Amino acid sequence: MTASLTPNQRAWRRFRQNRPAVISAWFLGFLMLVVVAWPVCLKLGSAEFASRHNPDRITENQFQPPSAANWCGTDIHGRDVFSRIFYGAQISLLVGVVGASVSLVIGVLWGAIAGYIGGRVDSAMMRFVDVLYSLPSIIFVIVLITSLEGWLKNWLNAMGSPTLAKSARLIFLFVGLGAVSWLTMARIVRGQVLSLRSRQFVDASRVLGAGPIWILRQHIIPNVLGVVIVYLTLTVPAIILYESFLSYLGLGIQPPMASWGLLINEGAEQLNPIRIYWWLIFFPGAVLVTTLLALNFLGDGLRDAWDVRSGT
Length: 312
Hints:
The structure is a single chain. By secondary structure, the protein is mainly alpha-helical. It has one domain: MetI-like fold (Orthogonal Bundle). Helices cover 74% and strands 0% of the residues. The protein contains 13 helices and no strands. Helix 10 crosses helix 11 and helix 11 (212-248) runs antiparallel to helix 13 (279-306). It is globular.
């Protein structure tokens, strides 16, 4: 029975037996559903409900603790923290997914080309990766944002795109965080390609006259996608954590937009010896930590599921 299963079916079977990974997948699915559905609930709800939970509505109910009216309390401007958490999730998850996608494209192409060509080209490309590894990645992103953000805003305004100009920092977060996260991806892909390029089906394609690009597209890259997807799930939480750290420092997402790191930063600014507004840090921090743990458990589950040494 087991011998008749395909590799994908065996991997899916092993994944379903990993309870933490399955629970994490359900949690992430539920989080995505709430993030998408919450704005719809505000539009379809009553006027009072929509007004109370409007994430941008400034009221006089500053620093209200969690209650039936505001489930996660209110901030310094009287805004509903619950709604701001899920609106912030849109930015944090978007930065994580887009940044990981940038890392995926660069890392897979770089590693596949280096591993397939080999020789001096491989050596030169991987020495370039080693040089980038020696640089502090977060410092690179900070320098990129502080030095080029103004130039990009001015250029976008001159091109007649004021809306994009307002999102210049978000664009740099997409590009910058993805550009510093592809190095490990490239090494993993290169190692896989080195073991695949001498396989018989690759040699057969060469004998039949297939070119390097066709072999990479049809044989090499499809066979490394399993490992790539696993590492991709581990890259997303790393990029979300990077963005949260930058927002905490005031170098990430800027108001009126919100992200989990920005919400934690706003809560930390209200800490004082007289009174601690604990809900401003606890709820955004709890959602951030839970999401990062779920993504890591999901990545570990996918890794174990695709590991042929895991048995049945």
